[in-house]
Give the backbone structure.
Amino acid sequence: MARRVVSRKDKIAEAEATEAEKSAKKAKKAKTSKRKTKAKPATEVRMKMYWGVFSQSLKRIAVFEYDQKTEAEKRAEELSKGGKSPHFVQKVKEEIGLD
């Protein structure tokens, strides 16, 4: 029995046809994209600055309004007297609850 001779032109045409089918399927998949969801606008968080009196172990002892820095420093000095651990004053930011 003799073998059948395969034409190269036929093989090339067959390969091109399968590639065209694959690209058509990819195009269909690309067209069907997921629905885009709108991003929620970020809510603005309002912060307020205070002066905090802290112990050496970073435990907050007292909180004063921002314009009362001298009172906060006096309180830190009072707590530091008598051989106790030193206390210090530091800025503290806290959220303001919107009513």
Observations:
- The radius of gyration is 37 Å.
